[in-house]
Amino acid sequence: MKIPRLLLFVILVAISYFIFKAPGIFLKQPIPSSLIVMYMFFAVVTILLWMTSTEEGMQGLVGPIKAMIEDPSKKTLRNIVFLIVPLLAGGITYMQLRPTYEAPVELRSIHPAPPSTVKVFGKTFNLMTLENPYRKVEKEDPAKFAQLVKEGGEVYFKNCFYCHGDKLDGRGHYAHGFNPLPANFTDIGTIAQLQESFLFWRIATGGPGLPKEGAPWISAMPIWENFLTEDEVWKVILFLYNYTGYVPRSWAK
Amino acid sequence: MKRKLLLPVVLSLIISAQAIAAQGNKENGKAIYDKKCWWCHGEKGGGDGPAAKFLNPPPRDFTAGWYKFKTTPFDEITPADADIFRMISGGMNHVSIWRGMSGTSMPNWGDVLKEQERLDLVAYIKSLSGLEQPQKPSIDYKNQVKSSKESIEKGKEIFKKMCTECHGEEGKGDGTKKLKDDLGFRTWPRNFTKPWTFRVNNDPKEIYTRISNGIPGTQMPSFADPSSKKTLSDEERWHVANYVASLGNDVKKAKDDTVLKAIRLIGELPDKIDDPKWNEAEPTSFWFIPQIIAKERFFTPSLDSITARAFYNDKEISILLEWDDRTKSIPGDEKAKEIAEGDMLEDSVAVQFPVIIPEEMEKPYFGMGDSAKPVNIWQWRSGKKDSPESVKLMNANGFQKIEQRDVAKAGLKATGVYNNGTWRVVMKRALSTEEKDKDTQFVEGKYTPIAFAAWDGSNGESGSKHVMTTWYWLLLKPATSKSTYIIPLIVALIVFGGELLLVRASRK
Predict the structure, then answer these.
(1) Residue A62 lies in a domain
(2) Band of pLDDT at residue A251, cut at 50, 70 and 90
(3) Low-confidence ranges of chain B (pLDDT < 70)
């Protein structure tokens, strides 16, 4: 069966609209409506260009409209359509003009590029080469490693769980008071993507240590250099990977 | 024939398998406990894990053998397995994204642990205090009195006699007594106007269960116990449960909408706190979280949300702040001292704005600004027995760099009233001031970052120990202009005209 061209046009436009709306519906990260209007404009123009690129296509699209206007037997349909279209146009304009008082959308980069060096704990660390000093213990002495992980867990359950959650899911009992929400370590989008040196930098310097694109002014992540020792930071990192079962990204990959 | 036989056989197999499963396996339970639970509940279940000292209420001590939220009657200490299973699974209530036991740090494990794993945990936890099966069955709800106006009225009378000494006149938990649990930890009676803070939830059946069985280990008594002075009949317990369930006030719950809209008034702004005009302003609520970010941190808050309303005219802006606080803290007052925790200080509330309203998204750091971007802080304090309430104006570049400023010169005013567990404070200032580089200048239609903080002086809060919010927005909502209605009308007419032209063209 051949789909009528006009119907096809409507379907394609509807699909593009849905695609632009999808991030808002499924990921709770809506595209701002002004951007959607712009995207839709380009989508409609593209679809039109493509559909009218052949004479036949042009006819298929314009034909039914022409017929509706000219064919006297379709008068009632015409009148209905002619009433609906201006109302729709007025309605859409009103929706656009109507003042809305939603909170402005604030975009931030979740994993901005780290600096090459960081000065914490009275030392300068080269983040390009920095490794977790305890990582090698994992193979050399599993029993000792288990002990280190447990110590890291204690650091976590004294300092991090009320934000990042008892289940490491970013939903601690105070998480709901923050925006952005605390990172969800069980999500493949956080520590599974990162190197231990990146975590070291983030934990030691916290929200205020972020570059501008990370929106440091709203991140509630504390500056842990003020509360923990260098040793404790490395141990809590071991715990995060151990509990979630992820492996840190290494330089090789 | 064969098929018909198969079904009952399979069914009975499933049922017996479930019966076995319902027992739970202690050893498996211990393995899970040692990975997930000991951090709070302690290595041996003593309620003394590494996280415990950051928590109020404290994690349950499983060696003591009492459980708060059980369905077995008051004279049966052992909970049903299903009770423990349910509290581990969670999800009965929630505060925003938190689906564990509301108002506590006990998470909901239903989403990460399988049913069998949770049953194993029940078996293990019970073994820590040698609990067997309960001798008495759980209470039932066969005489439930459905909620109705009459029932709620009757419940209210009973409530006044039986519950207000702890739960307060209006049920906001602002009682007259200092309450401690059996282990000596401070407990705060539930605020019934905030049903999302109920450990279980505010279904009348649940409330009836708590009233009938009490909450073991706490001062919340059983009202079914005939030997106590406070016995209520079965029917009376249903009435009071219906009343308690009717007290929920959704306005106090923070929603997704995080814009506080100031409404434009022609003429004077309401001067009095109890001016009925305030009901016309749109309330917006925000979650409080304790200050757990910078030194000195604070982990045992008693305040959990704040509701704000605002008006403005062409000269001034006025903000009404309302928050439930169980205690009116007036240092020097003997009565207030009786229910305070430790040294009592004043109650207080503050709002914070960036001194320069950002054009882009870059704001000052939400915790009192940063070295590059200062914030304006308006703070009201409740006063002491022999000194009245007061207002402070501060500019801060981070919490270590605070400048005290002249309140009168900036024209900042604030005043507050405490009534039955709720503070209401109104703050007022001119939209623009003389010191434009030091005071936030309010402009109609401009999204202005706003943050809140509060101190409960009876809960040991002062200085950096307080509750706070992150940045939200204040908007001086402009009146809708006429063109908003006229332009769409014109567009519709133009389109219609276009259609007519099209028809004419096609006729030719």
Answers:
(1) yes
(2) low
(3) 1-22, 508
Whether the pLDDT of residue A154 is over 50: the answer is: yes
Mutation to test the B interface, candidates A75, A93, A217, most B Cβ within 10 Å: A217
Residue pointed to by tokens 């059980």: B70
Of B288, B483, B492, Cβ closest to residue A86: B492
Residues A86 and A157 occupy one common structural domain:
no
**pLDDT for B22:** 60
Amino acid at A206: G
Listed range (A93-102, A124-133, B354-363) with the worst mean pLDDT: A93-102
B293 touches A: beta carbon within 8 Å? yes
Q: In B, which residues are within 8 Å of A227 by CB distance?
A: 295
pLDDT tens for each residue of A12-70: 999 999 998 888 777 767 787 778 888 999 999 998 888 888 888 888 888 888 888 88
Task: Classify residue B226 by burial, with Cβ atoms within 10 Å: 0-12, 13-18, 19+.
Answer: exposed
Kindly state whether A174 is in contact with chain B, defined as any CB-CB distance less than 8 angstroms.
Answer: yes
Q: Which two tokens stand for residue A234?
A: 């490395």
Chain-centre distance of CA B151, in angstroms?
27
Q: What is the pLDDT of residue B183?
A: 87
Element (H, E) at A58: helix A55-70
Bridge partners, residue B317, by sequence: B312, B429
Residue A51 belongs to what domain range? 5-97
Domain-embedded: residue A140 = yes
Q: pTM to 2 decimals?
A: 0.87
Return the CATH number at A214. 1.10.760.10
| Residue indicated by tokens 């009965």 | B92
Tell me the three-class secondary structure of B241-306, residue by residue: HHHHHCCCCHHHCCCCCCEEEEEECCCCCCCCCCCHHHHHCCCEEEECEECCCCCCCCCCCCCCEE
